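Human: I'm a chemist; would you kindly supply sequence and structure tokens for a protein?

Assistant:
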Amino acid sequence: MAGPVTEFVVGWNVVQTLGEGAFGEVKLLINQDTNEAVAMKMVDLIKHKDAAIAVRKEMCLHRMLKNPHIVKFYGSRCENSMQYMFLEYAAGGELFDRIEPDIGMPPPHAQKYFRELISGVEYLHSRGVAHRDIKPENLLLDESDRLKITDFGMATLFRHQGKERDLDRQCGTKPYMAPEVLLRPYSAEPADIWSCGVVLVALLAGELPWDEPTFSCPEYTSWKDKECRLFTTTPWTKIDNLALSLLRKVLNTVPRHRATISQIKSHQWFTKNFQRTAGILQNVSETTTPTNKRVCSELERANTVLSPEDFSTRLACSQPEVPTPAGIDAIISGANVNLGMLSFSQPVKPDQLLLSSQLTQGTQASQTPLQRLVKRMTRILVRTTLEDTLTHLETLFNKLNYTHRYHTAHVLTVTTLDRRGAQLVLKASVLDMGQHILVDFRLSKGCGLDFKRQFLRIKEGLSHIIVKGPVTLNITPATNMIPA
């Protein structure tokens, strides 16, 4: 992102990059006096000359959406060549982070998130809006583990004043894209529903069913032709018959025969009471299993700086603290870290973000421990020094044939290829926390599931320096800073 990171109101600091997209970055904005938090999407209109129209359209659509399962749009501001959008901050992180690669998550969890996704998409369609890029990377979770649809950069209006139109723009992410989108024109609603079905496969199996819905892809053609051998291969062998019956309807390759949202909501798998039948879940969001952990570990509650992970960043002013999940120990490197928790809220008066014309620099230099807000399971605690940790990382990246370069002094940008041969980019941030070093990994570009697969390779490669056992970190909020 060209130019310095700015803050619009005295007391509001940009403290960490949350994510990156085709046209810009999303950063966390914190009010240092009130602890209010907001996500700020930044787009450089000079650097991305094709972005201006797309950004205006995105803001126009997002502004009209108000639903519990849609990220809130607070407002926008344009300063010189930079367009800023202020959005609801989702402390729970990305949905893909809850998916164990090649395993998925327990069906009750998958059902919960799928129900919320369908509820959000139903609302979008009721407003005549098609999202057109539904995938786990665009599905966030708030502090209460509630799913929120975000990123309306590819969204469009398909119904206005009761009149519907077919769409003709080929957009989205190929593994999640409906087959008719590649042919065009296509109906908006069935295309989004197809993407929801692929998300459900990822939730239940931890992998995607195909690389793209084309005749050149054997996995897709086997599904389309309903070949018997299909259900002896993954991901289908990981999914029970009831869920498969729903997926057959949702992933029907003929759009007019595809299940509608009302049909999905009446399906037996969708309505099944897993809490009653399993007898083990009192609260889906609080349950953990050996293969799919609800949140990071107490380590996540302790990184007062680096990743916003399970840091008790409880976002809504009126929301109570979420209880610590059982079995939270050892989710990351076997570390159990005890540390006090901070509390954050959404801005009570978001208009304040838009009123000041005063721009100040230095927010990168004033990194605070508040940046450890988003729940993330891709971080490790190591016992080497900061310099030695960087050396270990460089050595490992070379061994794994990753391309890497320093983004800042303690942040490395790492590039490799995913399973489909597409570019996968991640950021590795190294933070000195006193007794130990925290290494936080964040997806920058590419498939979330493949990012987590690569993280597991990296974690294995660093296993000899990972801290094991209980750890207590005494961190002073005024210290321990890292670059965004």
About this structure: The mean pLDDT is 78. The radius of gyration is 22 Å.
